[in-house]
Amino acid sequence: MEELINRVVQNVGLDPAIAEKAVGLILGFLQKNAPEGEVSTMFQNLPGAAELAAAHGAGEGGGGLMGGLMNMMGAGGGVMALGQQLMSEGIGMGQIQSLSKEVFAYAQEKVGEDTMGAIVGAIPGLSQFV
């Protein structure tokens, strides 16, 4: 995961600690929301991904006003909750898009287009960020 985090630091401009947490949040989100088989394949090909997801991705659900509104509307949060979590870490919308593109490009390099396509296709709204 160090290679991916360094890529995010270099290409997105995030502090290393924020980059690590952001990647962990994205991996945790995918672990909870993507098809289990594809996520297993992805994590097997990304050494350290499961640990990073466990360390940083456990809080998916979105708190605050936006999270409360989404819960009232019956939305489980999904991509919007992930975006809110990333913004609460001080990551701007432009950086979120760059961050997600880096994470998905890296994962695609490691597991292939078919696996990542299945993951992106299974999560509503995710395709607009990758």
Q: What is the name of the CATH topology?
A: Globin-like
- Radius of gyration, CA atoms, in whole angstroms: 14 Å
Proportion of beta-strand residues:
under 5%
What is the CATH first-level class name? Mainly Alpha
Main sheet summary:
none
CATH architecture field: Orthogonal Bundle
Number of helices: 8
Q: Which term fits the overall shape?
A: globular
Low-pLDDT residue spans:
60-75
* DSSP strand tally: 0
Structural class: mainly alpha
Describe this protein's structure.
The chain has 130 residues and is mainly α. It has a single domain (2-129), classed as Orthogonal Bundle (Globin-like), CATH 1.10.490. The chain has helices at residues 2-12, 16-33, 36-45, 49-56, 64-72, 78-88, 93-111, 113-122.
Question: What keywords describe this structure?
Answer:
single chain; 130 residues; mainly alpha; Globin-like; globular
Provide a concise account of the structure shown.
The protein is 74% helix and 0% strand. It is built from eight helices and no strands.
List the helices and strands and how they pair.
Blueprint lengths: L1 H11 L3 H18 L2 H10 L3 H8 L7 H9 L5 H11 L4 H19 L1 H10 L8
Helix pairs in contact: 1-2, 1-7, 2-4, 2-6, 3-8, 7-8
